[in-house]
Write a structure and sequence with these properties.
The complex is a heterodimer of chains A (about 425) and B (about 325). Chain A is α/β, with parallel strands linked by helices. Chain A has 19 helices and eleven strands. Chain B is flat and about 70 Å long. Classes of the chains: A alpha/beta (about 425), B mainly alpha (about 325).
Chain lengths: ~425, ~325
């Protein structure tokens, strides 16, 4: 019996050991020279890229990019993990929280940078850029995504926000694209038809970052205001901020945007535009590529750059970062150099209407005949001092939540613009002070 | 060495020497040792206990540990109860608690009452058995949909351009569409309606199973005693279903409190945070904002509150019971 007991205990221990060993971290594949020392071929390193761009860029374009890179770098294999944009933030934060080593590089928005930095998940790219001045010289001044003095990512493409419209519907109705804010309202009035319950534009307010960039910041820039002042303190509760908020409140009350804005998200908005239910939208240049995936024949164009008190525009960017715990940072950096190369910049700017955040791409717009991108240099250059670039913020989600609350409260008539903005500003300033 | 504990000679002479001898060979003067047969049970349940420890207790302890820690630049530091102190002063936490209370109470009441009503209907004798079976299948249908597809479907149905508003404006001639998910007062009711639609079939099936297990003789006896339909329901059906109702309502409370997916699909906690439940607040704080410590503190507090609520709920429902009637 004693023997049987010992055997049983031994078997249980073995089972437990097997279970534990199965849970143990896998050893990282070697990245250096071949260990056997003989004439073994150079080992292929696999880097994993977490991002949401396969559909935005088109699956064929995306696959071709990877294939071209692998052809140029036969010792690096790129594995793409494609996640829908709405799931991306959660996926990244979960990876950061768990200290995952699954991803070597990833797509990121400005608003996610702070959380990833807090978790120590995102590499400071400052030293990499310093060591590679030739590469750094290819990037625009606004390409680095800086948080508290450190470069935590690089903008991949720059996004200006402007009034875009369905060319066919405008032609059919004999409408000209607006050239100022008053004409913008007039166009929406012309597109509104109470009998057929038709609206010119929808205005999704479900996402705080979305409404901040497309609506508030756009008007704020043209009023002459800024989100933060030169010292990094909150400035959006200024008279210009109140004027911007009040303008959107007035528009919302005019019954010119699709009802249900507070419950509407980007996906629905895109469906409305692509299906022709609405004819206009305020968004980035990529909206045409997205709409074409629903209706390949849709024709969209930007209204020409317009001005109010200033000619400033609201800008944002989507970018890329490298995982701080990646064992393949060198290979990831090689991929960065490829994806920001002149060759890729020009190709992507031309084929998917995205303004790559490189000097080559920006320069190429001067000769562009793209109905969206050809307008972009004017947005950038007509009043650069009054442009608002949405930069990474500490506790960004909390700040955006507070702003969304203020915006919705004003539109719902619960608070006046000054009170709501002051309350949001207090939340922002407290977080900014804490970060300093 | 001989194993005295299993020796037939050492066992009492009861006529069942072998079996009993193995179980009770720990008499005075003998070495205390768990005999083989007695250990068997532990070996069998061991893997399950290990699995339970791994998937339940370990994450729980880890969550509690995380709630006492803050992470800065990837470096954790012990902050004691700071997250809990902040939590008590956080108006959005109390807002989410109030929302989840409304969401849960209304959802549970609607799930059980709708499940009960339809189960009673399906338990009746129908003039056509095929039709009854068809209706059973039809009524179970919402349960088949994934939460994501249900959320998407109802988002489209609720939209001002959606089917419901098409009927409201186009057929009924109303002036303005109903903003189901866009008005703070209406959004919660709309989310509860979807949650009810999505989950009632589960409760209906369980209750139907309970109804079919009630002996027909009890109803016959009640009829003989002159009980009408209502009295039969109140004095026979409900008491007989009581253990099942307590069990499913407890399950429902726990499930409903934990809903993130439905809220995420329909409203993302809006408008004006009127549908932001505690589970969604945890998701937002921990996974979207990256504040894992704070999110863990909310989770821990929520767990404690839910445990107290469930214990109180079961105690209240168990009061006045006859022995064993409500045990499950």
């Amino acid at each position: 019996m004693q023997k049987r007991t010992r055997l049983s205990v031994l078997a249980a221990l073995l089972t437990l050991a097997l279970l534990l060993s199965a849970c143990a971290a896998q050893p990282a594949p070697a990245t250096g020279a071949a260990s056997d020392g003989d004439a073994m071929e150079e080992e292929v390193v696999e880097i994993t890229w977490l991002q949401w761009w396969v559909n935005e860029w088109g699956p064929d374009n995306h696959a071709q990019l990877i294939a071209d890179f692998e052809a140029q770098n036969p010792n690096i294999k790129v594995t793409v993990v494609d996640v829908p944009w709405p799931e991306m933030a959660g996926k990244l934060q979960a990876a950061a929280a768990g200290g995952s080593e699954s991803y070597d590089l990833f797509g990121t928005e400005s608003t996610w940078i702070a959380g990833l930095t807090k978790q120590g998940f995102i590499e400071d790219l400052g030293p990499w850029l310093e060591n590679d001045p030739e590469f750094a010289a290819k990037l625009t001044p606004t390409t680095p995504m800086n948080l508290l003095g450190e470069t935590r990512g690089l903008c991949l493409y720059l996004i200006p926000y402007q009034f875009a419209y369905n060319v066919d519907i405008f032609e059919e109705k004999g409408l000209e694209p607006p050239t100022n804010w008053d004409e913008f309202v007039a166009v929406l009035q012309a597109l509104r038809d109470e009998d057929s319950n038709a609206y010119g534009m929808s205005m999704p307010l479900q996402d705080g970052g979305f409404l901040l960039l497309r609506y508030f910041n756009f008007r704020l820039a043209q009023e002459g205001g800024q989100m933060l002042d030169a010292d990094g303190n909150v400035a959006f509760n200024s008279p210009e901020g109140v004027a911007a908020m009040t303008w959107w409140k007035d528009l919302y009350d005019m019954d010119l945007v699709v009802p249900g804005s507070f419950g509407e998200d980007q996906a629905l908005m895109l469906e409305f535009v692509a299906s022709g239910q609405t004819a206009a939208i305020i968004d980035g240049p990529f909206i045409w590529t997205k709409a074409k995936q629903i209706d390949p024949d849709i024709r969209m164009a930007y209204a020409p750059a317009w001005t109010h008190n200033t000619g400033g525009y609201s800008w944002a960017c989507s970018g890329m970062g490298i995982a701080a715990n990646s064992p393949h940072k060198e290979e990831a950096w090689e991929f960065f150099k490829y994806i920001y190369s002149d060759e890729v910049s020009l190709k992507m700017t031309e084929t998917v209407s995205l303004l790559w955040a490189t000097n080559a791409a920006v320069d190429s717009l001067a000769e562009s005949d793209d109905p969206m991108l050809s307008q972009v240099p004017a947005f950038a250059n007509q009043d650069p001092e009054n442009n608002i670039l949405f930069a990474p913020l500490p506790e960004a989600s909390k700040l955006i939540d507070a702003f969304q609350q203020a915006f919705q409260q004003v539109l719902a008539g619960e608070k006046d613009a000054q009170t709501a903005l002051d309350e949001a500003a207090a939340v922002w300033q407290a977080e900014l002070d804490a970060a300093k | 060495m001989r194993d005295e504990g299993t020796s037939p000679a050492a066992a009492p002479a009861t006529g069942q020497e072998t079996m009993i001898g193995e179980r009770t060979a720990t008499g005075p003067g003998r070495p205390r040792r768990l005999p083989w047969r007695q250990m068997n049970g532990y070996y069998f349940v061991g893997p399950a206990i290990l699995f339970f420890l791994f998937v339940s207790i370990f994450p729980l302890l880890r969550t509690i540990q995380m709630s006492l820690v803050d992470v800065e630049a990837g470096v954790p530091s012990f902050v004691g109860i700071r997250h809990y102190a902040n939590l008590v002063q956080d108006p959005w936490f109390w807002n989410s608690l109030s929302n989840v209370l409304t969401f849960t109470v209304s959802s549970v009441i609607l799930h059980i009452s709708m499940g009960m009503g339809l189960a009673l209907l399906l338990n009746e004798e129908w003039f056509n058995t095929t039709l009854r079976n068809f209706m059973r299948g039809l009524l179970i249908l919402p349960w088949v949909f994934s939460t994501a597809s249900s959320g998407l479907m109802w988002t489209l149905l609720y939209h001002p351009f959606g089917l419901l508003n098409y009927m409201w404006v186009g057929l009924l001639g109303q002036e303005a569409p109903i903003e189901f998910l866009a008005k703070p007062g209406l959004a919660m009711a709309s989310v509860v309606a979807v949650n009810t639609w999505k989950s009632y079939p589960f409760y209906m099936i369980i209750i139907l199973g309970g109804l079919q297990a009630i002996p027909a003789e009890i109803y016959e006896a009640a009829k003989v005693d002159g009980a009408n339909a209502w009295k039969r329901f109140w004095h026979v059906t409900l008491p007989q279903l009581r253990p099942i109702l307590i069990a499913i309502s407890t399950i429902d409370i726990i499930t409903t409190v934990g809903h993130v997916d439905l809220i995420r699909m329909l409203t993302r906690g809006g408008p004006l945070r009127s549908t932001e439940t505690v589970a969604y607040y945890i998701y937002k704080t921990a996974l979207l904002d990256g504040n894992l410590g704070y999110g863990a503190a909310v989770s821990t507090l929520m767990l404690i509150m839910l445990a107290i609520l469930i214990i109180l709920y079961l105690r209240v429902l168990s009061q006045g019971d006859e022995a064993g009637e409500t045990s499950f």
